[in-house]
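User: Can you predict the 3D structure for this chain?
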Amino acid sequence: MENDASRMTSRDLLAIERRKQILEEARKLFVEKGYHAASMRAINRAVGMSDVLTYHYFPEGKLQIFNTMIKELQEARESEKEKSINALKDDMPLKEGLALLADIMADRFEADRDFMQIMIQERKMLGADQMQLLSSMGEGFISSFARFLQAKAEQGEMRFMNFNMATSQFICHISVYAMQGILYEPAFDRVSYLSNISGIVAFTAALWAA
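Assistant: Here is the predicted structure, written as structure tokens:
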């Protein structure tokens, strides 16, 4: 059976590419100018399309573009969550597991820097459903890592504690460095981030040790 891609016409593929281009240029403008200052006319100029054509893909205009960007990011991260979770193995040493979590977070910060900046700037625009979905995605990731920590405690490698709280605290600690880069630096410096985090990983592993 032919897959969906093989059944697409050149017109379908062009439509997908144009839609992707609109979202990409809008993302750049939202980061540079902020949502409210980035007009549809500016988006059209950046894309090189007429107003009519842009509204063909997003009939509700700029707000629909914004909501689509957030929705697609959430869907992409949800699909990647299982891959990240599956990388954790119960026989992995605690310190290695913490380093892996820091590396996974670095991937997220590096890939989502612009989106995170937009969501920080425009957090008041996020609806209740969007906030709930973001929260549930984070909770799912935290609970999965907490199960890894529980396995470490049962194996005698670390003390028993509130594993959800411990995971949240560790993520908050390492996120501070990434947020500084997102808010104040021109680009996310992965090497510097991981260098700073290595000390936190070693300190946390020693603090939690049995």
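The chain has a mean pLDDT of 83. The first helix runs from residue 4 to 7.
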